[in-house]
Specification:
The protein is of the alpha/beta class. The protein contains eleven helices and eleven strands.
Length: 304
């Protein structure tokens, strides 16, 4: 079985999957000196592991000509996969839901804590030898809105509740008016929703204006859930007490982007789901589905 990993980064998961495959299986990573279409045309490709790459109709069409039989996302999100194009070609699409839910929830909690304790300013004070500054806030007793009550959002709600936060959640049935009202009541907001037509740019100028001036905003979902220009404008006006980001509008991101150097912005390099346990569970799902594909058995976590 010829397997192509398309993502940028996450080399540990590539090595882990490779170590668990049959010796007869061949796993390669995308050579980024050529386009993804050219990559799938360069060698047989039975299985594509998209990760954060865009697997559109052109990629799928080219891969089908070279034996594509499965698109297996080694994560939960499938927003970068053209599901309609895959269905039209009869190619199953599977993901790995819940494998990293604890990891993502803990990372969201970390970002909440870092923002509450004003980590960029604290690091600067440390470097300057300044004792006892800056002044942070406590999460205990604060109101947390979790946008997206799926596996990672629910896991965060449990952990935030243990800290004494008052947690509320939204779901796909929450109306725009209800969301704005919930944002207005929150001391902190954490985004855990999938990226789709409904959620793209959902946290826009109107939504940010509805948030309290001191509120913390954390995003461990997808970068495009937030309108970047609106976020930059809000920060420039002194709005929001902190912003914690693990996902970005373009990946890899530009580390020189002034947004990421803002004194109220905390960044992680898209590692919310990157833990040994999470990767172990993801690798197990990927290898199991490759095995099932070879045997002709029903696939796990098929979404299309």
């Amino acid at each position: 079985m010829h397997i192509l990993f398309c993502g940028s980064g996450w080399l540990d998961i590539v090595d882990l999957i490779a170590s668990r495959l049959s010796p007869a299986d061949k796993l390669r990573s995308w050579d980024r000196r050529r386009s993804l279409v050219d990559e799938v045309l360069a060698a047989p490709t039975d299985v594509i592991l998209p990760s954060n790459a865009l697997v559109d109709a052109r990629v799928i069409g080219a891969a089908v000509e070279h034996g594509l039989r499965l698109i297996q996302q080694p994560a939960a999100g499938t927003d970068g996969i053209d599901l309609a194009a895959a269905a039209a070609r009869g190619i199953p699409v599977c993901n790995a839901p819940g494998a990293n839910q604890v990891a993502v929830a803990e990372a969201a909690l970390l970002l909440l804590l870092l923002c509450a304790r004003r980590w960029p300013a604290a690091r600067s004070a440390f470097d300057q030898g300044i004792i006892g500054s800056p002044l942070g806030v406590e999460l205990a007793g604060a109101s947390l809105l979790v946008v997206g009550a799926g596996k990672t959002g629910t896991a965060l709600a449990e952990r935030a509740g243990a800290l004494g936060m008052h947690v509320r959640t939204t779901s796909s049935s929450t109306s725009r008016a209800e969301l704005l009202a919930e944002l207005d009541r929150a001391d902190a907001v954490s985004l855990h929703c999938p990226l789709d037509d409904r959620t793209r740019g959902m946290i826009d100028a109107e939504a940010l204006a509805a948030m309290q001036p001191h509120a913390i905003l954390v995003n461990v979902a997808r970068g495009a859930v937030i309108d970047k220009d609106a976020l930059q404008d809000a920060l420039a006006r002194g709005h929001l007490g902190g912003v914690g980001l693990d996902v970005y509008w373009q990946e890899p991101w530009d580390p020189a982007d002034p947004l990421y150097a803002h004194p109220r912005v905390v960044t992680l390099p898209h590692v919310a789901g990157s833990t040994t346990r999470a990767f172990d569970q993801i690798a197990a799902i990927v290898v199991e589905n490759v095995t099932r594909l070879k045997r002709g058995d029903a696939l796990m976590h098929r979404i299309a």
